[in-house]
Amino acid sequence: MAKRRVIVALLVIFGLSVVPARGAQNVEAEMRTLLKEHPEILLEALRKEKVQLLGILEEAAQERQQAEEKRRIEEEMKNPLKPVLDPGRLSLGKPDAPVVVVEYSDFFCHYCAAGAGIMKELIKTRPEAVKVVFKHFAAAPVSRQAALIFEALGLQKPELAWAFHDAVFANQEKMAEGGEAALRELAVSLGADAARLDADMKRPELDERLKKDVEEARTFKFRGTPTYVVGGMSIRGAAPLPVFEDAVDKAMQNAKSGAAAPDGKEAKVAANAASGNDKNECTDCREIK
Question: How far is CA 213 from the centre of its chain?
C-alpha cells in the first residue's frame, strides 16, 4: 500500500505523463484523497526522486532567469542606459573616443580582475573607438577603501591610480589580508605623496563620488560586479572579448546612423552582446547584496 501511494504521488508530481487519459481522472481523485489523509506521502516521494526533482527545479530556475534576461534586454533597447560621465573621471583609451564603456567594478572581486584585463585588450583591438571609464560598485569596507585611494591617487597623477588599479587586482588576497594599511603602503610604494594622499582621501567630493557610483548601479538594477554599459546596453559579468568588440562595433554603427537604440536584425545582435552570447546573467560576476 505504501509503495502504491508513492507511485501515485510521483505520477502527480511529474505530470501524470504515463497515465492513460481515460484513467487520469480516477488517479487524480485517488491522489487528492491520499494526500489529504497522508501528506507525508509527498515528502516520501520527493526523497526517493531527489535527482529528478533537482533537475526540474534547476530547469525552472533557468527558464525564469532567461525570461528575466529577455525582459531586461528589451527594456534597455527601448530605454538605453545613460551613465553620468563627469569630466574628472579616470579613464583609459582615447579621450575623445566615440564609444564610452562604463565599468562598474570592485577591487576585491575576482571576476573584476579578469574584466580589467579584458578592458585593456578591448582598448588594444579598438584603439580609435573606445574609452573605458572606471566606476565603483564596492561591496565591502576594504573595497570602498581601495576605491577611495584609487580616486585620491588620480588627483595626484592618473598614472599612479592605474598602477594601483593593476597592482591591487594582481594581489587581491594579499591586499585583502593587509586591509587599509596594505593599500596605503602600496600606494606610497608606487610613488604617491603620502601626505597629499591622506589629505585627498578626506575630500568629501570623493566620498560623494563613490556613493553616486553605487546609487547609479542600483538605479540600473545591476546585481553584481563587474557590469558594463556599452552604447546604452549592459553586459553582465566578465564576458569574453568578442562580446565587447561586437557591442562596441554595434554602438559605432548606431552612432553613425543616428539610431537611438537597436531594432530589427540589429536588436538581435545587440541582445546577444548584452547577454554575453546567451550565457546566463552574471555567470562571471559576483552578486552584490
Answer: 15
